[in-house]
Design goal:
145 residues; alpha/beta; 5 strands
Length: 145
């Protein structure tokens, strides 16, 4: 397994990748480890729907639907949302942080917001707001090539 020790509660990680070296496996390893350690985890999926992450993590022995039903995992679908829902995504993150002691927040592919047509300034404000909110919790952001 890639990660052997629990993630510190105040860790911030930015994962970037290239076409030659994709970073998605790191994102899934962080989620896998946190959920297995009993840590409440929120995945904000901006690049893929829930089923994508569920299929990948199922190969690693983690049933996301079951973990979601037990309250240990939550998913916010940013894929089917329009670019003007940044406020809604932010509220979901706030609510999750307030309901958890030391949550893990994973934001997958913030650049997808730009590809979906969200203005650069709004995405920058969203990113700054999320970063401010998660200053005391573990936060992982994935920015592909």
């Amino acid at each position: 397994m890639l990660l052997q020790n629990p993630l510190p509660p105040d860790l911030t990680v930015l994962i970037t990748d290239t076409l030659e070296s994709p970073g998605t496996f790191l994102l899934t390893q962080f989620v896998l480890r946190a959920v297995r350690d009993g840590r409440k985890t929120l995945l904000v999926g901006l690049a893929h729907p829930f089923e994508h992450y569920s299929a990948i993590l199922k190969k690693n022995g983690l049933q996301l639907a079951s973990e979601r039903d037990k309250g240990r995992f939550a998913f916010v679908d940013g894929v089917s949302s329009s670019p003007d829902v940044l406020h809604t995504l932010l509220l979901a993150i706030v609510n999750f942080i307030e309901s958890s002691e030391t949550p893990l927040i994973v934001l997958d592919d913030i650049s997808s917001l730009l590809w979906a047509g969200a203005p650069v300034l709004e995405v920058a404000r969203f990113a700054a707001s999320v970063r401010s909110l998660v200053s005391k919790v573990t936060f992982i952001s994935f920015q592909p090539h």
